[in-house]
Amino acid sequence: MAPIGDIPIKIEGEPAPPAEYGNALPVLSQVRHALAQLVQGGEPTQIDLGAMPFGPGDEERLMALLGTGEVTATVDALGLTHIQETAFSGVWIVEYLNTDGQRVALHLEVDHVPQLLRSQPEDLGAALAALNTQLAGAPDAT
Amino acid sequence: MATASPQRTDGRPAPTPQPTLGESLRRNGVSRRGFMQFCAATASLMALPPSMAPAIAAALESARRPSVIWLSFQECTGCTESLTRSFSPTVENLILDTISLDYHHTLQAAAGDAAEHAREEAMHANAGEYLVVVDGSLPGPKANPGYSTIAGISNYDMLMETVADAAAVIAVGSCAAFGGLPKADPNPSGAVSVQDLIKDKPVINVSGCPPVPMVITGVLAQYLTFGKLPELDQYNRPLAFFGQSIHDRCYRRPFYDKGLFAETFDDEGAKKGWCLYRLGCKGPMTYNACATMKWNGGVSWPVESGAPCLGCSEPDFWDAGGFYDALSVPPGRSGDMLLAAGAAGVAVGTGAGLLARSKARTAEKQHETVTAEQLEEKL
Ligand code: SF4
Ligand code: SF4
User: What InterPro entries does the annotation carry (chain A) (predicted)?
Assistant: First the structure.
């Protein structure tokens, strides 16, 4: 199936200027509250932006308010996940895409490191076993 | 249920346990991160907070694929289109592959006796544990069964026989949930909804014309994940998706509260994105997930595209007056309603929903037909 963005649409006349629906600032307050929780008690928070009643332009406004920080990362597992640190340390934008590149979820994570970037505990044991096998099979293994 | 161990009392051999979802994913080379990514998307899909992702991961790890039999009766295939044409192939394929769609009238390659045989096989192999999904209403027991049959079996007989050993029934779309367009006045085929007929099993209504695809998948995902049925509202709809009105989650709500309404589809108010209440928006009386989950993979939804909500997930929306009349008031009585609700703006708030529901019932009694010309005039 062709992605919806590929459907050719001709817009006649000027597109309407982006309206201000005022839904970005309340989310920013929620982020502030979550960051305070992280600072005081080390408690991380995840906010599902897909559950917000955003109008056209609200998401862009929120992203502009959050700004861009130093770290970007991409996880390639069952579709790409783009992770971007915002201008506020500890506040991360996590966008999950499916294998067709369509967004399946957009979260804000307020944490030291986003969950998805950490090595998964179950994988560590498997990685150790894999390394052991490789060393055992290597010609110069002792 | 998804995680129940197979216990048989009928003497038939217990079915071979299916691999768990965790096992199938690993077998398909999906990494843990891939799985966590899947769980984060699934949490959004189930309208659960993202912090539930680890619990979802733990539950899905050991979830087994329940068998699903999908029956299509008097319907337009819009619900199946909604499910299969949109949203994320990854999440959806995984869930559909995992729930084991053993029989689907529209999607299966088999036809006739072979197809009916597949349905019977699935029923016997998973007795007491399978889910029946129904789209479309069906002629009731007193109606002429000839209005809708499949392989020579009336819809009524097929439903009753298939549901007999089911764990639960999911009625997908407003036709299966409430009768839908086939039931519209004067209901020539004697159409009834699934819950009109099934009284001894849980019936979950996923209404909408069609339902938001993520909601269909979300309800199935919830069953797959937690092995239990969701909490329901007064119309047996899952509260997670139907718990709030369109109006309560609408981004145009600040305009409603300020009394700023578009009066026509192309006036200054419409261009500025003001509230569509006076253009017939049924958002205040409609419970559905459109305002946040949106359509076409989150691109937009009717109100964002400038069209009033038609109330398609509510019982009897098809007979509740003109789509472009404010709050389901039959033609000729719009003025009263606008005075009662539109001008008052803020004061109406949630009360409008209740008012609208009773008005909708009145409208239903006073139903008048509207011609295409009249509709044009209104526009
Ligand atoms: S009446 Fe309709 S357009 Fe207006 S705020 Fe409610 S749901 Fe949105
Ligand atoms: S906006 Fe209203 S009419 Fe449109 S799909 Fe959603 S519930 Fe149905």
Answer: HupH_C_sf (IPR038527), HupH_Hydgase_express_prot_C (IPR006894)
ipTM of the complex: 0.75
Separation CA B68–CA B223 (nearest Å): 11
Residue A98 lies in a domain: yes
CA distance A17 to A11: 14
Q: Residue B166 sits in which domain range?
A: 66-242
pLDDT given at position B4: 39
Q: Nearest by CB to A77, from B34, B50, B253: name it.
A: B34
- Cβ of B293 closer than 6 Å to ligand 2, yes or no, is no
Query: Which residues of chain B, if any, have pLDDT below 70?
Result: 1-18, 28, 65, 84-111, 328-379
Omega within 30 of 0 (cis) for the link into B139: no
Which residues of chain A are within 8 Å of residue B32 when distances are taken between CB atoms? 120, 122-123
Which of B272, B302, B319 is where one domain is finished?
B319
Rounded to whole angstroms, the maximal C-alpha distance in chain B is: 72
C-alpha closest to that of B209 among B100, B76, B84: B76
- Alpha-carbon distance of A48 to B221, in angstroms, equals 18
CB pair distance less than 8 Å for B37 and A96: yes
Least Cα distance to B47 among B239, B235, B224, B237 occurs for B239
Residue A60 lies in a domain: yes
Cβ separation A51–B47 shorter than 8 A: yes
The residue segments making up the domain with residue A62 are: 32-122
Tally of domains within chain B: 2
Residues B222 and B292 reside in one and the same domain: no
CB of B170 within 6 A of ligand 2: the answer is: no
Report how far ligand 1's centroid is from the alpha carbon of B286 (Å): 10
pLDDT at B7: 42
- Name every residue whose Cβ is closer than 8 Å to that of residue B195 and which is 6 or more positions away in sequence: B171, B177, B203, B205, B236
Q: Which of B44, B96, B265 to mutate to test the interface with A (most CBs of A within 10 A)?
A: B44
Q: What is the pLDDT along chain A (142 residues), one digit of tens a residue?
A: 566 667 777 766 666 565 667 788 899 999 999 999 999 999 999 999 988 888 888 899 999 999 999 999 999 887 889 999 999 999 999 998 877 787 888 999 999 999 999 988 878 888 899 999 999 987 764 5
Do B183 and B137 contact (CB within 8 A), yes or no? yes
Confidence at residue A18, expressed as pLDDT on a 0 to 100 scale: 59
Ligand 1 geometric centre to CA of B304 (Å)? 10
pTM over cut 0.90: no
Q: Which CATH number does the domain housing residue A65 bear? A: 3.30.1370.140
Cβ distance A115 to B271 less than 8 Å, yes or no, reads no
